[in-house]
Every structure is written in structure tokens, then in C-alpha cells.
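wait is this the right file?? whatever heres the structure
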């Protein structure tokens, strides 16, 4: 048996044990994931790193699941030095397993602030830019929720055109047409919920009334027409083909 100092406390340690085991026996908590008492330590997860302070006061980071006790060894398990390495190690593990609840819980137990789980948005802001610059509905903006900046809705601004969903490179904006209502949402957050209008040609629900009004207001009437017609893209295609055929027939 030898005496070692862990977090300023003198502790008796079996030389055959590891520092992690000694810490566990003395109810000193060190995070670890790849240690198993029935197996040889592998040093894979690197979470159990501790600060070892030499007689000259120099600090080194060592894995407590491998390190063996030596007389007068000075160990710190929760110093700023350890916290810096610990945070980096948690981040590396979460890069490999971003949805692991166990790693996230362990980080929380040791007060390590880590990046939130990925939400599928790459913050390219294409959705916001197209909505502001082209559609001009200004229905989206960046918002800060619990220190995380994400795409959020400006209530009452969405016109249900779906342009944001068409442009989103990661396909996380959803457009769902059900019971004559279009719902646009991002990760469960509703951006807009708007009634749909029927196509004058085939009767299919095809666009929101708000979108059609927006187009009318933005474009105005064509000098040759008295009203705006509401046709879906399939009917417009059909009508233009008919018009072309008719023109060609007249020319002949
Ligand atoms: S929701 Fe899609 S388009 Fe908008 S910022 Fe995120 S990834 Fe880009
Ligand atoms: S417990 Fe995984 S490296 Fe020590």
C-alpha cells in the first residue's frame, strides 16, 4: 500500500489497482465509459483523464484507468486543467455518437457544457434569405433559444408558398397538405398553417389563399386580363399546350 494525494486528500492505495479504482473506492467521481472491472483497461474513451502534478509542479494529463498509484503521487480530478481536456474528450465522443443520451447525461453529471444534439439545420439561412429577398414574406428569422441560434418563425408572416422547403439543402422544412390546410414546419415548430384554395381547372387543392393574394398584390393585373386565374401547374401546362396548338392551327 502507498499513500497518494487525490484532490488534496491523502488516500491509501493498493499499488496493483488503478487510480480510477482507487478513486471509486474513495467515492471520488471520475467519468469513464470504456472501463469494465472484468476487462483489462484499453484507454479508449479517454474520459477518465486526470491531472498528475510532478514534484516540480508540472502537470500532465494521464488516464486514470491505466495509471497505477506510486508513493506521494499527486492527482487532481476536477481542476481547470482536467476540465479543459474533459470537455474536448466529451466533444470528440459526441462527434462519433451525437445522439448518445448516456454520453450527454455523463457530461451533464460532470457539469461539462457540450454542443446540443444536431438538429439537421446547417444554418445556411437559405430559407430566411429567399423568404426575405424573393418571396418578401419575411416569415423566418434566426432566434436564440437556450443559447442556441436556430431558424424560427415570425408568427403570422408565412404565406405557405413552400419556397423555403424547396431550397433547404437538408430537407428539414416540411410542407404538409391535409384537410384543405397547408402546414409548414421546421423540426416540429409550426411556421405557418393556412387554408388551401382549389384549382379552377381540376379542382385540386393546390396553393394557399394567402400565397395567391400575395402573388396578385406583388404582380398586379396583366393589361389584357380583368382578373387573376387560379390554376395549378398541371392545368397551366395543359392550357399552354392547347394555346400553342391553337396558334399553330391559325397560322396554317
Ligand atoms: S432550415 Fe434548411 S435552409 Fe434554413 S438555415 Fe437550416 S438548413 Fe438552411
Ligand atoms: S475509462 Fe476509458 S480511457 Fe479510461
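ok assuming it is, sequence goes like this
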Amino acid at each position: 500500500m502507498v499513500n497518494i494525494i487525490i484532490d488534496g486528500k491523502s488516500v491509501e492505495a493498493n499499488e496493483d489497482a488503478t487510480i480510477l479504482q482507487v478513486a471509486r473506492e474513495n467515492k471520488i467521481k471520475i467519468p469513464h465509459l470504456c472501463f469494465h472491472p472484468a476487462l483489462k483497461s484499453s484507454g479508449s474513451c479517454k474520459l477518465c483523464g486526470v491531472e498528475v502534478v510532478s514534484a516540480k509542479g508540472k502537470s500532465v494529463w494521464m488516464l486514470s484507468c491505466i495509471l497505477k498509484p506510486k508513493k506521494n503521487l499527486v492527482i487532481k480530478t476536477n481542476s481547470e486543467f482536467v476540465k479543459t481536456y474533459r470537455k474536448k474528450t466529451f466533444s470528440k465522443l459526441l462527434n462519433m455518437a451525437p445522439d448518445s443520451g448516456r454520453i450527454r447525461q455523463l457530461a451533464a453529471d460532470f457539469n461539462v457544457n457540450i454542443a446540443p444534439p444536431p438538429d439537421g439545420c446547417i444554418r445556411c439561412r437559405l430559407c430566411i434569405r429567399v423568404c426575405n429577398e424573393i418571396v418578401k414574406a419575411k416569415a423566418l428569422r434566426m432566434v436564440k433559444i437556450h443559447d442556441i441560434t436556430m431558424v424560427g418563425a415570425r408568427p403570422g408572416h408565412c404565406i405557405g408558398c413552400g419556397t423555403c422547403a424547396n431550397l433547404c439543402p437538408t430537407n428539414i422544412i416540411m410542407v404538409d397538405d391535409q384537410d384543405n390546410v397547408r402546414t409548414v414546419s421546421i423540426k416540429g415548430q409550426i411556421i405557418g398553417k393556412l387554408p388551401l384554395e382549389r384549382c379552377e381547372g381540376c379542382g385540386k387543392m393546390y396553393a394557399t389563399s394567402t400565397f395567391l393574394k400575395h402573388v396578385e398584390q406583388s404582380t398586379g393585373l396583366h393589361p389584357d386580363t380583368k382578373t387573376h386565374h387560379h390554376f395549378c401547374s398541371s392545368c397551366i401546362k395543359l392550357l399552354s399546350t392547347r394555346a400553342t396548338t391553337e396558334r399553330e392551327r391559325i397560322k396554317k
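Residues 126-251 form one domain. so i think its the right one actually
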